Amino acid sequence: MERTPTKEQTLESVLTRPDVEQALVSLVERLPEIEKSLRRLEDAVDFGMATMNDQQVRQKVDTLLDSSNLQVETLEAAVKLAEKLPMLLQVTNQLEQVLAFAQDVYADEQTRELIGQRVDEYVAPVKGKADATRTMLTEIRARAERDDRNITLFSLVRWLKEPSVQHGLKYMQATVEVLSEQTKK
Amino acid sequence: MRTHYRVVIVGAGTGGISVAARLLREKHHLADEVLLIDPETKHYYQPLWTLVGAGAAKKEESERDMATLIPKGAKWLQDKVVSFDPEANQVETAVNGTIYYDYLVVASGIEIDWGRIKGLEAALGTKQVCSNYSYQHVDYTWDTLRGFEGGTALFTHPASPVKCGGAPQKIMYMAEDYFVKTGVRDNSKIVFGSANPAIFDVAKYRTALEKVLERKRIDTHFRVNLIEIKADDKVAVFEQLDSGETFEMRYDMIHVTPPMQAPTFIRESKLADAGGWVDVDMYTLQHKQYKNVFGLGDCTNLPTSKTGAAIRKQAPVVAKNVGDLMYGQVPVASYDGYSSCPIVTGYNKLILAEFDYEKVPQESMPFNQAKERHSMYILKKDFLPVMYWNGMLKGTM
What we know:
- The structure holds two protein chains of two kinds.
- Chain A is mainly α.
- Chain A is built from eight helices and no strands.
- Among the domains of chain A are: 7-68, no CATH class; 70-106.
- Helix content of chain A is 88%, strand content 0%.
- The longest helix of chain A is centred in the C-terminal third of the chain and has 38 residues, at 109-146.
- Chain B has two domains: 4-110 and 262-336, FAD/NAD(P)-binding domain (3-Layer(bba) Sandwich), CATH 3.50.50; 118-259, 3-Layer(bba) Sandwich (FAD/NAD(P)-binding domain).
- Chain B contains nine helices and 21 strands.
- Chain B has helices spanning 14-26, 49-53, 120-123, 138-147, 167-182, 203-215, 264-267, 308-326, 374-390, and strands spanning 4-10, 34-37, 42-44, 63-65, 74-77, 81-85, 90-93, 97-106, 111-112, 129-130, 151-157, 188-194, 218-222, 224-230, 235-240, 246-250, 253-255, 260-261, 293-295, 339-346, 349-355.
- In chain B, strands 1, 2, 5, 6, 7, 8 and 19 form a seven-stranded mixed β-sheet that branches. A five-stranded parallel β-sheet of chain B has the order 10-17-11-12-13. In chain B, strands 14-15-16 form a three-stranded antiparallel β-sheet, with no helix packed on it.
- In chain B, helix 1 runs parallel beside helix 8.
- The longest helix of chain B has 19 residues, at 308-326.
- At the A-B interface, helix 5 and helix 6 of A face helix 9 of B.
């Protein structure tokens, strides 16, 4: 295919650009090194091919493969695992960071102290209430066990005057009234 | 003394230490090749100061020795940078002379200009003039709230970028809650004088906060800027930003958020834009002119809210891009402008605002974060400090 004048002009203009010119000069200067590298690569390829063509080497590789547990499934699994490597790397990185954070918290005395204080702040009110309830229950049990009086009708009447009993009874009364009204409807 | 490092980081605050930790975690061969320059011997977790000012936390919990936070493998030069010469890849320090770098990260934070408000410096910490923006004086905010017996409680927000734009109003909400508890709320008036045009930039959280203001009966004055305090007379002088007129307001206590600016040595350097901030690409955080220079945090001209949460997202981008550039790759890691502001609205309530450059909410939790929640308050008070000291500064969070 013939080159159009525009393309030729473009190529010419590209080649005369100072940066391209400089790159070409640099490339030419490095040609001996590049040639050496290519030669080394060629040697390596020749060595590889010669090795694979060597009957004894091939026999050894076959024996090794036959005596191993490697199967087609193993290779398939390896490929699948390789496919998952980016995701596994991400997960591993995240786990590594969480682990590093946990280790740092554990090793940091000031942070441990801070966490301890915070836990105390949250636990103290709950613990206070639990202690008060336990004390009250102990007192009730002790009094009940000490009390050898018989409960009489008069005792029940006295209870009825207690504000807490009154309060409870009012709730009961209100509940009965509401339920009764609901049933009539 | 050694004068050349592969990476020099100016500022060992949140941004500087986070980037150093991340670089060293990713590139082990950079051990002893990362230099942090910072003159301070103490490092502060400043988000806690809102709670300290409201008596809900101890200020000592917000302070740690700088030496204990320098990442393993990084060097710390306790000195002050006085100038930059980005053409020669060098920074000039006050005591140790010139330091050369291959890559420079600028994370020197923001400077408080107490002197810009006439009468503030002399009055701060006395006569019911308080501010949570100073470790030295943050206790006085709590003293002032406890001593308040009614009258006008005035809270201000200046006409300049500030670190944590929500902090000026957080302490106001806490104060209102405290006044209700102590029984002085009914005979007091709470006023918010802000240079901003509204209570918050992001529509979703603005709507929620306007309801909070209404519920708490807080008077708001927007587009006003505090310019003077007459502490003896308990008078604040404001400038109306749109008309230029000034007016006075009497107070019985005032919490001042001071004006802030980029540090002088940045403002006067070639790294700064016209406003004095480090001029970086808003996505790659690479300096717009000097490609081996990066910036993050409060000292940059990034068009987002200046918060520690923003730095948490900026640090990985800077670390990745510096690393890539080191190996001849184009820096492509990108920052989306994420910032977050845990707005405390009382002693056990908080709105967790999270948003990006477009002011679009970027919420991390699977529920509506514009709602005031106790769980989010616990997150701020108890969990975020641990995440900061042991996660963010270690390069893992």
